[in-house]
Design goal:
The structure holds two protein chains of two kinds.
Chain A (H helix, E strand, L loop, with lengths): L1 E2 L6 H35 L1
Chain B lengths: L4 H5 L9 E2 H27 L4 H13 L3 H31 L9 H22 L10 E4 L2 E3 L1 H27 L8 H28 L6 H4 L4 H16 L3 H5 L8 H21 L3 H23 L11 H13 L5 H26 L12 H24 L8 H22 L8 E10 L5 E9 L9 E7 L4 E5 L1 E4 L2 E3 L4 E2 L5 E8 L2 E8 L16 E5 L1 E2 L1 H4 L8 H33 L3 H16 L4
Antiparallel strand pairs in B: 2-3, 4-5, 4-13, 5-9, 5-10, 6-7, 6-11, 8-9, 11-12, 12-14
Helix pairs in contact in B: 2-5, 3-4, 4-5, 4-7, 5-6, 6-7, 6-18, 7-9, 7-18, 9-11, 9-12, 11-12, 11-13, 11-14, 11-15, 12-13, 13-14, 14-15, 15-16, 15-18
Classes of the chains: A mainly alpha, B alpha+beta.
Chain lengths: 45, 615
Amino acid sequence: MILPLAHHSALVALPVFAPALVVIVVLLVHRLREKRRWEEEEADG
Amino acid sequence: MNFDFGTILAATAPPAGGAEIAQIVIATTAASLLTAALLFLGLGHRTGRVKILQRVADFSERSSGMPGWLAFPSAVATVSLLTAVVGMYWDIALHIDNGRDAGPLANPAHYFILAGLFGIFSAGFFAMVLPRERPSTVSIRLGRDWWAPLGGVLICACGAFSLIGFPLDDIWHRLFGQDVTLWGPTHLMLIGGAAMTLVGIAVLSVEGLRANASADTPVEELLHTKMLRAVALTGGLLLGLSTFQAEFDFGVPQFQLIFQPILLMLAAGVGLVLARVYAGPGAALGAAGFFILMRGGLAILVGPVLGQTMPHFPLYIAEAVVVETVALVVSTQRPLRFGLAAGIGIGTVGLAAEWAWSRLWMPLPWPESAFPEAAIVGFAAAIAGATIGAWIGAHLSPIPLPRSPQLRRAAVCSAAVLAALVTYGLYTPAQEGVSAQVSLRDVGGPAGREVEATVRLHPADAAADAEWFDVTAWQGGGLVVAPLKRSAPGVYRSTEPIPVHGNWKAMIRLHDGSSLTALPIYLPRDEAIPVGEVPAPSQFTRTFGDEHQLLQREAKGGSPLVTALAYSAVAGIALSLLVLLAWALHRLAVGLRPTRRRVRLRLRALASFQHGGGR
């Protein structure tokens, strides 16, 4: 079955980058949350 | 998706195009599973609930003697890079020989490329999550008790940079049509990211070496343990830098011949000087040997074993000998002086050796007419490359070298020189007013019509000083690159049968000065573009035109604003990666060197220890 897409389909292209994107977002969110905590801890003492 | 080195050197999508739904399901499922697996392994390791990564890392540590967060990710990255590079050369050869694929996953080489690039990204991720303690003074803090090695962050960034090339490549093709060349901007992202991974692995190795050092075993005593790893690393970098020459290696370059000496000298300068500064005596020769071993294996695999067009390769042996010889006279402890001296040697002796090698084995030998231009630009690229190699090598040195503002300034100037060389090489105004009267004589052929060509040029001396003047036929089931042989003033004959049937695209290519033109002999009808057939009658007269219109029939122009925005976006992303690499190298060098602040802190700590009665 052929989807009516151009040969170079963004629909196929996105999953290729998706794992990297998800992992990077998870790491960034983790760092931002943790950074706030360790900065608060350092400020407290 | 176009992980098309397919677009890279080949023709277009099949008529009407289309991606099979099965391929979309495969890609999406694989991506989901991979994401889940990475997060499960990585975050599970951080929380202590999943032990798999720790066990594998412990095994790697026991086997190699290096920290697990270095040994395991390095092994994954090495295997992944090899997988990707095999896939890349195989894919290029497939597309040169056969043209386009039926779909994004319809070509087995694509799986190798994808697996390789995912592997690289995963290796960086594993390096980031594995350390239980702070791995090095230059590591990046991700949590209260989570420090990621700098090299791991770099490997991850390089892998992500390569992977984002896929969706960007798709957008590019929608805007401008397929750019059937290795040097499409988004294609360069794919291979550039993978090549730069080697710098990340090198940074990770330095961090690991420092972690293994102790008061009883200083870094100096551990250096011999890294020699083999360093040779493979720098040889790998040479391999990575050489991927940019692939169009020349196959004999179908779409850019001026001067780019070959520029790229060759740049790779030799960066790779071999870096090797010698970073890894010590014999490393440049080792890197060249590693390169020949790998590329020789690739050539045999892609050519005789897989039955595709064989990728040729340069040798780098003379350049390596030059670098080792220069190191006997100029100390690598003075990287700028060493880099300049090595660059001069590479740009003269090395260039001459590669010139001779091109005439012995490369598909497009460098002609006399390329002198002196090719020698001048090659020399400049060698000096620039060697300086940059010295700068990187000095920053990667496990034993900190004295800081040198001159070296930094020279490296920046070298980058500017390289940018100027590339700009100069990209200026290719097409020579106008050249035509040819072509007579074709049928010579049969096992699969369809093949011909011999007699070409009468107007003006007669149009190819007298040409860099190349040949018949190129591709994408119909193989590759023919055959020089045209002069038989009388202005008259040339083909030297091999030219296929003019089926999907073959046959043309006469003329590269004279900075002009790149071509004349079609036979081009098939292609409904996907769409374009009609250019037939091959027994007699015809045609005019040479801009060869990109023949080689990249699929490309379509965009508005100047969109074009400027698209190039700026890709250039911005590429520049970001380069800035990240430069920052990381600077952080590595500064972090390994005792700064005034650190010395002050140590003295303060010592004083407090003494006052507290520690003695």
